């Protein structure tokens, strides 16, 4: 907790400034105060937590799961074969140059307002950091250690499982810390552009009613969900990569 003390203090100061500024402007539909946002979230807790949050988390988890499988598979394939790397890597980069807001309506046209139009958007923006980071992790192994294992008679499979994979694990968890908040954002954006449920959809509905606190309440829940998920990843990372603290 001590290492987060500075962050907590800065966050509290920013909230105080926000509260004072909101009271000075005195226009709830433009800038609601943090207290009003919390009050709104609490008053709408049943519909937000029991209806819209599960819908957004479903999109997030499915899209993130697909991204993990796809990203790791592409990274391994590119690491194993240089021709595959030359063919796939530019395409992976190009997928990130097209704005998601431009593609989301197309996915809605293809898949309708079902969960899959939103899953595709979430997958599209999250598989890139996983692919690139895991690929860099697999390439980060020291050549002298590879050569040492080869002299001991290790096969390519042994080198991958006992050397490259452990080296890539920190990169994998780092990519998840990037992908998880992005997946939450991607799910919300896709719901803004076309959905019948979800926190993004609810925020958009509140905007049409000029309810500033109602717009920010789902955003608050999205932020808390992302923070909790990243904290879980940090916990799993510390439990999985114990050797990093020993070197």
TrEMBL record:
State the compartments where it is located. Answer: Cell membrane
Source organism, top-level taxon: Bacteria
Main localisation: membrane
- Pfam families the record matches: BPD_transp_1
| Record's bilayer topology term | Multi-pass membrane protein
The residue ranges of the ABC transmembrane type-1 domain are: 53-237
Which protein is depicted?
ABC transporter permease
Q: Which residues form the signal peptide?
A: none
Q: Which family does it belong to?
A: Belongs to the binding-protein-dependent transport system permease family.
- Protein keywords: Cell membrane, Membrane, Transmembrane, Transmembrane helix, Transport
- Can you tell me where the transmembrane regions are? 7-31, 51-76, 88-109, 115-135, 171-195, 215-236
